[in-house]
Amino acid sequence: xxxxxxxxxxxxxxxxxxxxxxxxxxxxxxxxxxxxxxxxxxxxxxxxxxxxxxxxxxxxxxxxxxxxxxxxxxxxxxxxxxxxxxxxxxxxxxxxxxxxxxxxxxxxxxxxxxxxxxxxxxxxxxxxxxxxxxxxxxxxxxxxxxxxxxxxxxxxxxxxxxxxxxxxxxxxxxxxxxxxxxxxxxxxxxxxxxxxxxxxxxxxxxxxxxxxxxxxxxxxxxxxxxxxxxxxxxxxxxxxxxxxxxxxxxxxxxxxxxxxxxxxxxxxxxxxxxxxxxxxxxxxxxxxxxxxxxxxxxxxxxxxxxxxxxxxxxxxxxxxxxxxxxxxxxxxxxxxxxxxxxxxxxxxxxxxxxxxxxxxxxxxx
Amino acid sequence: xxxxxxxxxxxxxxxxxxxxxxxxxxxxxxxxxxxxxxxxxxxxxxxxxxxxxxxxxxxxxxxxxxxxxxxxxxxxxxxxxxxxxxxxxxxxxxxxxxxxxxxxxxxxxxxxxxxxxxxxxxxxxxxxxxxxxxxxxxxxxxxxxxxxxxxxxxxxxxxxxxxxxxxxxxxxxxxxxxxxxxxxxxxxxxxxxxxxxxxxxxxxxxxxxxxxxxxxxxxxxxxxxxxxxxxxxxxxxxxxxxxxxxxxxxxxxxxxxxxx
Lengths: 365, 260
Known about the structure:
- The complex is a heterodimer.
- Chain A has 2 domains: 4-228, P-loop containing nucleotide triphosphate hydrolases (Rossmann fold), CATH 3.40.50; 233-364, CATH 2.40.50.140.
- Chain A is 26% helix and 29% strand.
- Chain A has 10 helices and 20 strands.
- Chain A has helices spanning 47-55, 97-107, 112-125, 141-153, 171-188, 199-205, 223-228, 233-238, 264-269, 300-304, and strands spanning 4-11, 24-31, 36-40, 62-67, 70-71, 82-85, 159-163, 192-196, 208-213, 216-221, 243-248, 251-253, 258-260, 276-279, 286-288, 306-316, 321-327, 331-336, 347-351, 358-360.
- In chain A, helix 2 packs across helix 3 (112-125) and helix 2 (97-107) runs parallel beside helix 4.
- The two termini of chain A are 37 Å apart.
- The model of chain A has no long low-confidence stretch (mean pLDDT 87).
- Chain B is an all-alpha fold.
- Chain B has a single domain, classed as MetI-like (MetI-like fold), CATH 1.10.3720.10.
- Chain B is built from 12 helices and no strands.
- In chain B, helix 3 (56-89) packs antiparallel against helix 11.
- The relative contact order of chain B is 0.15.
- The interface between A and B is medium-sized, with 31 and 21 residues.
């Protein structure tokens, strides 16, 4: 069980910038021992760059990388004992699955009998016991990724890095492998740093999630907290809050205009400063043009939050119908029940309930 | 079945005749039994085939060609493999310039390479003929080696070096244990191509051969100036068959056409 600490990590590229590589700016991060922490962000946010620095494949300009209390910032990559699972699997094409997994053990001069036992064990742990003799080219994508996982785990790394390991797999396999990674992580207790751009994957796998943007940490939180209370407009948008509006002087400001939105009681209830409110489409009920807002919540305040508008587009999602509604402050995405049947140009109301909104600090945006 | 495209087929045939016609003439003439070169021959036989093996000038120049070919091929690979690897794995300032320079002899006439080597190296440093041939051919073969090895490296994801390193290999171990085994086919292809190129080389050799030491193609040209018997045709036939056999064998074993 090993803890990873990054302190003030800075990685910049000059003219020699590798394609798609992002800079990392003064990054502090703690991955507690035995936990799985995800680096989540769009491409170019610096998540892969950070991971490669931890692996020792590129050198940071400033900052420290501390693994299990030992400063490894200047330790050569091949002496770090950090496993890395690549997006492309990066299996050695000329070696069988068995020999791929054995590669790290052979370099460590592990005796033959023990090597055989550990490799067989590792292959069995990813359900590939039967396929050790196959070459990578004779394995499916999912099987190749399992070999890559076994190869990285068999050396008993102090830390396992996973670089978008599932993004080359098809959807069903991705779910299966996701469970597999989680199971391995739980049973072995290995500290893991997981890089992904898929928020759903990060939510499903992680103990904690670090959302990165342009080389900095945008938010570092547990999955539920990140989902329920995104800290910034960027995180909100990334986590699917498609309705994002500035809140200032008691008004909600959209691209087209502003409406008064009373928020007194709620604002006092929660401290911390915020500048934006955000709703997922599923948090915005679409209502008929006239009538009560909601049996229980009906009241003057609530009614004030129901903005009239016209349907711009409708899409049937099976368990709901999503509407894009043009309101006085701008377009709003909301949801109606599966039976709702408003068509384009129908007059409706969208209920922007402040109680359901995420409050964001756009100071950094 | 599709309708056969007759005009296209005719063009293809024409191209084949154009390409292989001279071979057929030389090949047939190689089996001549006549005193002088003529096509078609009036009589047939193996006498000129046998004869070429007894000409001492051919024996000596064949040995020179063999030594120069093998030597310059090995030298070009020893230089070319690391160069190709560096170009494939690292972003270097001026990389494209380096790449272009390394493929230059493909566009610069061999005559210029030969003349430059003669004027500025062989004459200045008083290099022995065999050594200067070796240097000249190595310079000529290097771009082929870089090219072909680069092509085979392009099929190999750079990630696998990094994977080896994270598993505990040094960069050198990663190269020898992971990269090299995967580009063996490309290196073999480069070797065959380089050797054949050296073996058939005329322009560079023309400048660098000197008294008493010559390569086989230069000796054949010299022979033709004085004799007009079918032995050159016979020797050419032997060389063509030899070359085709080498290429076919390596293609069969390693599939070299993927890289060239």
